[in-house]
Amino acid sequence: MLTSTAMTLTRRSFLVGSSLAALAAPRLISARGLLTDPTLDDLVKRALAAATKAGASYADVRVVRRRGESVAAREDRIERVSSSEQYGIGVRVIAERAWGFSATPIVTASEAERIARAAVDVARANARLLKRPVELAPVPANVDVWQTPLLKDPFKIPLEDKAELLLACTREAMKVPGVKFATAGFNGQSEWKLFASTDGGYIEQELCRLGPRLQVTAVDDRRGEFESVASTVAPRQAGWEYVENVKLDAGARALAELAIEKLKAPSVTAGKRDLILDPTNMWLTIHESIGHPTELDRALGYEANFAGTSFATPDKRGKLQLAAPILTFYADKITPGGLATCGYDDDGVATGRWNLVEHGVFVGYQTTRDQAGWIGETASRGTSYADSYASIPFQRMPNVSMRPGPHERSLDDLIAGTDDAILIIGDGSWSIDHQRLNFQFGGQQFWEIKHGKRARMVKDVAYQANTIEFWNSCDEIGGTSSWWMGGSLFDGKGEPEQINAVSHGCPPARFRRVNILDTNRRTA
Amino acid sequence: MISEGRARSLLERVLALVEATKGAEGLVSLRASRAGNTRFAQNEVTTSGEVDRLTLDVAVQLGQRRASASTNQLDDRAIDDAVSRALRMAHLAPESPETMPPLGKQSYPRVKPAADPDTVKLSAAARARAVAAAIAAGDAASVAIAGFYEHSYDLVVRGSTAGLWASHESTHCELSCTARTSDGTGSGWAGVASNRAGDLDAAALARTAVDKAVRSQKPQRLDPGRYTVILEPAAVASLLAFLIGSLDARRADEHRSFFGKPGTNIGDKLFPETITLRSDPGDAAAGGAPFDDDGLALAATRWIDRGTLAALTYSRYWAKHQDKPPTGEPGGWTLDGGPTSRDELIKGVKRGVLITRFWYLRSLDPQTILATGLTRDGTFLIESGEIRGPVNNFRFNESPIHMLANCDGLGAQSIPGGGEGAGARSPILRSHEFNLASVSEAV
Q1: Does A279 sit behind a cis peptide bond, omega within 30 degrees of 0 on the bond before it?
Q2: Residue A167: how many CB atoms within 10 A of its CB?
Q3: Domain extents for chain A?
Q4: A184: β partners
Q5: How close, in Å, is residue B437 to chain A by CA atoms?
Q6: With an 8 Å Cβ cutoff, are B48 and A440 in contact?
């Protein structure tokens, strides 16, 4: 049933003043350019009304516009310049206690009504195959606007500036003798969406994410061997000023020299070794072995056919010593710059922060409105997300991060206190089993640590471990100022597969007696 | 959904807009799809949707400057905007020596219709019936069953300012199921893809998954090591994908590949006589199509012919650079099968491991095409020619080169659906000295 005050509280009336408007006013002032097309108010109302009339007990509509821009450079040339734009409506309903969904790229009120009815038909077709009816945790009727804080909109930065920055990187890298290839790229993503539901939500958000990258390859023609090193610059939710500040071009020569050094480096000696992970490597280990296992749908078997299940089942909550007591991992969608950060999720739930692992003990899950009740929780954690108008919202990973240690220790401090270890910088190959236990990760740079100092570079390194044994072998972590946030624009989950962007922050950390592999098939 | 005729007239208008700018050339494409999907888990439907998509791609070039823009809106304003965005970006893009002019009129291979009428018409109710059959198989054995059924009808039309016109209609569908026993110690999987929904037998597929789950309960511990393996088609297809991805001539010529070194060039014998890898634009079930994204006509090709490396893929730019014919980006991949039955393959194994499928495969070393990944959903010990029972899963570190070089038995093919690297028509095969590097406790 169409209940809401919010449905009569359109964007326009909201802007001119209600008690809610007064509360949200500072956010509105900072939300540049977010003015809903007035015709969308009508479209949204008609879609929700059509769904209700057709028999839906709940409906939400998302109008989503996604823009992308990509520039790729190689050596002394621009290889690819492209831009994309995708716009459409998705309507999700509960009818006869089952979910239904339909989507269209034709953004008109009559088409919105058509897909609303189609979504109800889909729900009805599936209702008889339902054993547990869909139940939604309650949510306040949130009416708000949220936008990525930024100074320079990357979509307004001239293409020449982007091309010149990338070419400056590749040209600088190519100056180093022995470097044969250099690629640099830039991805910009803009996601604008209007969400409205029969529970009263009416939320407009605009997110801007970008990812600069650089990779250098050195080739030894005589031996027929090559090695690559990629930069450790992370993708972020930010404006173009972030790209300017990371100064990818200034680090290009050093990166090229590392590629040459890696080409000449010996393969690692395999065996049980102590391991120090830089945050530029460990963010991905957190993603795979803490982030994914604590997705509730996965833990309960709802991802079994694709990504698998999880060792972190509900019976272990509050009991499993997943990690050493010095480690606490938290989830959030509020960290500034985090790729998953936003004001509200795609269920219309306000975002927040909570612990997944507290002093080493597994304590929490990522949930959505239809999942919270499965584990006796009364409110969603706000982690619902759909990657386009045409995708069905479901549980997606928020930012998941490691809390820094209480003492102010840097990476150099960790190295100084270590007699014999391998230090890994940057993320490389990654793979983990379907219950998130056996993992194997590579990296970009590998250094031997000897007697508290960084010694020679080695290569062909992977570390392989069991998640629980690995995190329990951690005996030292860095402090607040060593904390750094990595992330990915391309995290896949679900069927059909959807892509989510997510960040992970952590300090450097040391692990004892980890299985180090030599991945060079010729020497291994 | 948009018709081919309307798509073509719309693209003619887009081409006219491109040509209105002096010196501009372009390749424009319209892709339209209507897709449906139903997902199930814990023996009930979870989500289901029906989705229409459209993409207009406008790739323009001004001499050696090139850029592309895309939109999914087809009103005049959106089309004008996409064309002017592409032109504006092309003006700003630096000149690239790799820019190739748009292709002119092509002669495409005559292929059987790839769009199956029954698959075009599939409804949510039809999907629900198939899913109900899969769930019933899980219920009957008291195991948890999860899976995914999806299908689509796709139309692509391309045109260029140089006179190219190409259009292709196709359908695609796939169904996969994972069954898990209630004690959490057994898991089984089955999945298949085709362009015809009639090829998907939900009940039979679910029974295979359920049977594997039940038989894989309470696995015994088996140490890591190098084993003789029987790899089922899904496992073969996912590892083979790394080899297919390494067939690029440019990377070989630039010494950034397994290929192109002494002993790994075209004409070198790398594998047994039984190994033939081909692509066929007419193999619609395996995703074959008569042209690629440039509109280049694709030819049926043997890449590995009776064990010998026969061809590498050439982009249009690299073909010109090396004075070779371009191959484009082939589809419809097949690794030839053989006459040996599954049972006979197993009978020939003194001690080895039967593997249903792999998961989370990632490249470790492109110089040897070494990849890592894990077994899952049905891993069994074979001793003295018989399946002895279930064993733990493993992480492998192995190369598809090694898998094929050590292959001494090939059986029937299928097109795996719903897994990683799925899509190549692949056989069950036997190989030796396969590196199962560490134990995975995952079920």
Answers
A1: no
A2: 21
A3: 5-264, 271-518
A4: A73, A214
A5: 10
A6: no
Task: Count CA atoms closer than 13 A to B394's CA, side-chain side.
Answer: 27
**What residues are paired with B28 via a beta bridge?**
B58, B159
| Tokens found for residue B293 | 């994204």
* Cα(A482)–Cα(A477) distance, integer angstroms: 9
The 3-state DSSP class for residue B244 equals helix
Q: What angle do CA A227, A233, A237 make, to 5 degrees?
A: 145
Question: CA–CA separation, B242 vs B232, rounded Å?
Answer: 17
Q: Look up residue A516 and give its two tokens.
A: 């180090």
Q: What average pLDDT does the segment B324-353 reach?
A: 97
What is the full DSSP assignment across A284-324? HHHIIIIIGGGBHHHHTTTTTTTT---S--GGGTTT-B-S-
Q: Confidence band (pLDDT; 50, 70, 90) for A21?
A: very low
Token reading at A32: 């540049």
Nearest in space to A101 (alpha carbons), one of A370, A304, A452, A293 = A370
pLDDT value of position B422: 64
Taking the C-alpha atoms of residue A362 and residue A418, their distance in angstroms, rounded to an integer, is: 29
Tens of pLDDT, residues A197-243: 999 999 999 999 999 999 999 999 888 889 999 999 999 999 999 99
Q: What is the CATH number of domain B4-212?
A: 3.30.2290.10
B72:A436 CB<8 A: no
B114 is written with which tokens?
């790839």
Taking contacts as CB-CB distances below 8 angstroms, the residues of chain A near B253 are: none
pLDDT digits (tens, 9 = 90+) for A490-499: 999 999 999 9
Give yes or no for a contact between B236 and B426, defined as CB atoms under 8 angstroms apart. Answer: yes
pTM higher than the cut 0.80: yes
Residue A27 has pLDDT above 70, yes or no: no
The structure tokens listed for A447 are 């250094």
Q: What is the crossing angle of helices A109-127 and A38-53, to 10°?
A: 30
For the domain made up of A5-264, give the CATH fold. PmbA/TldD fold (3.30.2290)
Residue that the structure tokens 């014999």 belong to = A420
Tell me the one-letter amino acid at B429: L
Q: How far is B41 from chain A (nearest CA, A)?
A: 5
Q: Which residue of A has its CA nearest to B182?
A: A301
Nearest to A523 by CA among A463, A465, A460: A460
| Residue ranges covered by each domain of chain B | 4-212, 219-443
- Gap from A23 CA to chain B (nearest CA, Å): 36
Amino acid at A330: Y
- Give, in degrees to the nearest 5, the angle at Cα A516 between A492 and A455: 110
Burial of A23: CB neighbours in 10 Å, binned 0-12, 13-18, 19+:
exposed
User: Chain A contact for B356, CB < 8 A?
Assistant: no
Q: Residue A17: what pLDDT?
A: 30
pLDDT in tens, B163-198: 999 999 999 999 999 999 999 999 999 999 999 999
Does position A181 have pLDDT exceeding 70, yes or no? yes
Q: Using an 8 Å Cβ cutoff, are B230 and B355 in contact?
A: yes
Task: Say if CB A460 and CB A520 are below 8 A apart.
Answer: yes
Rounded Cα gap, residues A409 and A477, in angstroms:
7
Tokens representing A421 are: 């270890």
pLDDT of amino acid A390: 96
A150 token code pair:
């930024």
Q: Residue A471 in contact with residue A324, Cβ under 8 Å?
A: yes
Q: CA nearest B264 in A: which residue? A: A224
Which residues, listed in sequence order, are joined to residue A353 by a DSSP beta bridge? A332
Find the mean pLDDT for residues A135-164. 94
Query: Which residues does chain B have within 8 Å of residue A108's beta carbon, measured at their own beta carbons?
Result: none
How many whole angstroms separate alpha carbon B321 and alpha carbon B299?
A: 21
> How much is the average pLDDT of A407-426?
97
End-to-end alpha-carbon separation of chain A, Å?
65
Residue A303 to residue B132, Cβ atoms within 8 A: no
